[in-house]
Amino acid sequence: MSTATAAAATARPAAARAVLKAEARLFRREPGGLFWITVFPTLLLVVLGSIPSFRETNASLGGLRLIDAYVPVSVLLAMIMAGLQAMPPVVTGYRERGILRRMSATPVRPGALLGAQMGLHGAATLVSAALTLLVGRLAFDVPLPRQIFGYVLALALAVLVMLALGALVSALSRTQKIAGAVGSIVVFPMMFSAGVWLPVQAMPDTLARIVELLPLGAAAQALGEATVGDWPSWHQLGVLALWTAVLSAAAARWFRWE
Fold it and tell me: Which parts pass through the membrane (predicted)?
C-alpha cells in the first residue's frame, strides 16, 4: 500500500465522524422535520383515540380495538415521514447547492453522508416509536408489545428499509423539487400498505397477502404479531431484510455527488 493510499484510508474514519457530528448539529436546528417525525404520529394517535368508536372492540380485527391497531401504524408513519419527507430534501439540497461536489474532493465517501443521515433520522424514528407506545399505553390502555425481542427486531428492520428507500430517492433525485415530488408519489402507497387508511388486519385476504410483500405491509404484520405475543413470521422478516438489501445496494450504486 502506498503512503498516499494509507493516508487516505486513515483519514476516512475521521472524516466520517466529522460528517456525523456536523449533520447532527444541523439536524437539531430543523424543528419542522423533528416535529413531523417525532410528534406528529403520536398526535395523530391521540386524535384518533379521542373518537369513541376507535376505543370499541372490533370483530373484523379479531377482538382488537381500532386504536390498538393504529399504534403500530403510527410507529410506521414516523418512518415514512423520516425516509420519504425529511431525509431526501436534505441530501438533494446539498447536491443542488454544490456542497456534495466540494465534499467529493475530500476523504468523505458517499456512505458516510448517507450513513449519517440515515442514523440521525433513524434515531428520531426510534424516539417517536417509544413516544407512541408510551402514549398509547397511558392514554388508551393499549398493551405494550409482549414479544419484545421480536418487536425490536421487526422495528429495526422496518426503520432500515424505509431509510434505505429514502436514500434511494436521495440518490436518484437531482434537486429538492424532484425529491419532494418523488417522495410525495411514493408516500401514498407506503401509507396504504402501512395501514394508515385501513389496518392490514382488516384488509381482505387477497389484498393483505399482496400488501405483505411490500416493506411496510410486512412490517405492520410483524409488529402486530409481536405486540400480541407471537414471534414475527420469518416470511415477513425476510421480506423486510430483502427490501433493505436491494434498496441499500441501489442507493449506493446510483448515488452521485452532482
Answer: 34-54, 66-91, 111-136, 148-172, 178-198, 234-255
Four-residue CA torsion sign, 15, 19, 22, 25: negative
CA 67/CA 217 separation, integer angstroms: 18
Whether residue 50 contacts residue 183, with contact meaning beta carbons closer than 8 Å, is answered with: no
Q: How confident is the model at residue 152 (pLDDT cuts 50, 70, 90)?
A: very high
Left if phi > 0, otherwise alpha if psi is -120 to 50, otherwise beta: which for 195?
A: left
- C-alpha 57, offset from chain centre: 29
231 secondary structure, DSSP code:
P
Helix, strand, or coil (residue 198) = coil
C-alpha cell at 50: 379521542
With 50 as the cut, is the pLDDT of residue 198 above it?
yes
Residue type, 199: P
Task: Spell out the residues 6+ positions from residue 71 whose beta carbon is closer than 8 angstroms to its own.
Answer: 45, 132, 133, 136, 142, 227
Q: What is the pTM of this model?
A: 0.85
Return the pLDDT at 64. 82
Of the CA atoms within 13 Å of residue 87, those in its CB half-sphere come to: 33
The Cα 250–Cα 160 span in angstroms is: 14
Distance CA 98, CA 32 (A): 24
Q: What distance in Å separates the CA atoms of residue 19 and residue 22, rounded to the nearest whole number?
A: 5
